[in-house]
Design brief:
The structure is a homodimer of 230-residue chains.
Chain A (H helix, E strand, L loop, with lengths): L8 H4 L2 H4 L3 H9 L2 E5 L4 E3 L7 E7 L2 E7 L2 E8 L3 E3 L1 H6 L6 E4 L3 E7 H10 L1 H27 L2 H16 L3 E3 L4 H7 L4 H11 L4 E4 L2 E4 L2 H8 L8
Antiparallel strand pairs in A: 1-8, 2-7, 3-6, 3-8, 4-5, 4-7, 9-11, 10-11
Chain A binds a DNA duplex (30 and 30 nucleotides) through helix 9.
Chain lengths: 230, 230
DNA sequence: GCCTTCGATTGATATGCATCAAGCAGCCTT
DNA sequence: AAGGCTGCTTGATGCATATCAATCGAAGGC
């Protein structure tokens, strides 16, 4: 049940945990678990109270909402970051479900421990504030994009940020196209058509590889004023 | 420039400020301002760095995003609560603009002071965490509604929460219909048509007064699984 | 009390995107 | 190498909602 500190350098380095005292961190790890899950494993379900704060150590997590059997992907989380922090600190029902996209390793910190620790360790509280604020801004951006951009523009903006993140003009899709489509708030069909539409704006794709051949042209189309900072 | 403590009981009672030490609170008020604005006054503009954390003491604030001259209302804030907290704690550009909807009174706390105080006053840090988490969940809900509900369903859900909040089956619109429409992510025309469509589900409206004549029927239509808690 | 103005409504039309329905291609299995 | 599964693409159609345009109606000014 307990996690050895030797296994945690990546976690310790997270903004959320970096500044907290060695003592609280050790105590927290002592009651946490590091667990492996296969691909497509259900991790948490919408509507339930959060038992654990989760940290993605390895793999990828799909955060999605359900209604009438329909799903929409709200966020996709990669190492090393956390999910359902807000539900944990408020101890309120989760608004999203989570499942692994690929085989993943998760650190699970009992949520009561998170709440207790953040009351006693100021540095941890600051980490939580920074993380929550960043996430808040991120959802806000998604909402703005959904409301004000066409599906092709959202796609273009996503390609631009992915290229920027990778530091190159060519990169591979880190997930299924259908998931990406859902994440961008559109159907797989619309994603596909959007992609062909973007060809005239300096994007080509072969299989899972996307190449930005004319970044300036693409930016002109995407008008990435809204694009990301954090 | 400074705010006298006698003027602040409402602010002091806010979850955000309630638990903090008298000393930090007094110091914070000492460098804050209480200011009145007429209706439709611009308060902050998207893209700028936050100079102040704002608290709506009186009136109503429209938080909106702009693009190509188009606007969409992201949130509407009533007394007594805060806005642009996330941008303040991260000291990053605001993602939304704000303007008064009606004559309003705002408390303005210099953002550097907010950041300093939350480093020294643990109780204030906790308040910020709770507030941020609540807001995060609230945007998440809006996003889910936008993605998964039809415009009429969003409207129905909004009516149900408004009725619940007012404690009665009849209530008055607290703002222009066009603003409400934008807030719900639709045009004024769609709002209007949505309203007539809801008549067969137990809602009538005359002018700015909305009456839920058959709550059960309306709930059946709205399927308010996603509705609010906080 | 009438006129002006601005928002709300209603109607007609347009369009973006979803949905439905086949094809198609890569990949795994045998 | 053949078959079949799965996910991607492409085409045809439909629907929800935006857009455009006109009328209506209430609130405020003169």
């Amino acid at each position: 049940m307990s996690v050895r500190l030797a296994e945690t350098p990546l976690i310790r380095a997270l903004p959320l945990f970096k500044e907290m005292s060695e003592r609280s961190f050790a105590a927290m790890m002592d009651v946490s678990m590091l667990q492996r899950f296969p691909a497509r494993a259900d991790i948490i379900r919408e509507g339930e109270l959060p038992d654990f704060l989760h940290v993605v150590v390895e793999g990828a997590i799909d955060l999605f909402a359900t209604r009438d059997g329909e799903e929409t992907t709200i966020d996709i989380v990669y190492p090393v970051s956390t999910f359902i922090l807000a539900a944990v600190v408020r101890d309120e029902p989760q608004l999203k479900s989570a499942r692994t996209l690929v085989p993943s390793q998760l650190l699970m910190v009992p949520s009561q421990v998170v709440r207790d620790t953040f009351k006693h360790d100021a540095a941890f509280a600051h980490g939580i504030v920074a993380e929550l604020a960043a996430r808040y801004r991120s959802v806000t951006r998604v909402l703005k994009n959904d409301r004000m951009l066409s599906s092709a523009e959202r796609l273009a903006n996503w390609i631009l940020s992915s290229a920027r993140r990778s530091g190159r003009n060519e990169f591979d899709l880190p997930l299924e196209k259908r998931k990406l489509a859902s994440y961008l708030g559109m159907t797989p069909e619309s994603y596909s058509r959007g992609m062909t539409a973007l060809e005239q704006y300096g994007v080509t794709s072969h299989g899972a590889t996307i190449t930005v051949t004319d970044p300036a042209r693409l930016m002109e189309f995407a008008k990435p004023a809204l694009a990301a900072d954090d």
